[in-house]
Amino acid sequence: MFTQFKNIDTAFKHIKTFSVLLILACAGISGFSVWKSLEMVKTVQGKIYILANGKAIEAFSAERKDNIPVEAKDHIRMFHHYFFSLDPDDKVIQANIGNALNLADGSAKKAYDNLKEKGFYSNLIAANISQEIAMDSIVLDIDQYPFYFRCYATQKLVRSTSTVVRKLLTQGYLRNVSRSDNNPHGFLIQRWETLDNRDVPTKP
To answer: Of the four listed, 14, 54, 82, 104, which is most buried by Cβ atoms within 10 Å?
Structure first.
């Protein structure tokens, strides 16, 4: 009889141990499944799909601070492109300058007004001069706010008979503003000024 009780007690211990191990295994699998599910949801939420030409293109969302250097430099690049890319057509000039002034404060408007008073834009139209700009480099300091920048570029004034090349050096600061259709990067250039804009000697 005692042997029978002993066998029953041993069997009960085995069942108890097996049950505990099974419960722990189920809990572990459940916890792992929940963790993986949360990771998957987080990954999916970080993806954005853009429809372009009938095709879904995957993009990834990111914190603004991760993109500040890229967006800031593109903002500076687009401002200079609009401000200095001009053709001998008043509508083109007004459209480009308007786009540029959306990206900067009154310092850019002041520079535009000064050039206009000197007859710069009238001379472009009268002499059929096209002005182009190529960005050489942009130095950006994001360790201070507003963000300081220096822009190095090359200008070309193309006439029917000749081309004048100028080196351009400007500086200014960037501050954060709300994004809009006219200002997609959400920056505003302030205290913008031209430090150097001289002709580059060309070989005869």
So the answer is: 104
Residues 102-154 have pLDDT tens digits of 999 999 999 999 999 999 999 999 989 999 999 999 999 988 899 999 999 99
Report d(CA 74, CA 70) in Å as an integer: 6
Show the beta-strand stretches assigned E in 11-71: 47-52, 55-60
Q: What is the pLDDT of residue 9?
A: 65
Q: Which domain holds residue 41?
A: 2-49
Tokens describing residue 154: 């090359």
In a domain, 57, yes or no: no
Q: Are residues 165 and 68 in the same domain?
A: yes
Indicate the pLDDT class of residue 51, thresholds 50, 70 and 90. Answer: low
The structure tokens listed for 73 are 């430099």
Cβ atoms of 171 and 147 within 8 Å: the answer is: no
Question: Residue 104: which residues within 8 A CB-CB, separation 6 or more?
Answer: 79, 172, 188, 189, 190, 192
Coil/strand/helix, residue 154: strand
Q: If you count them, how many residues does the chain have?
A: 204
Do 31 and 103 belong to one domain?
Answer: no
Q: What are the tokens at 103?
A: 């990206």
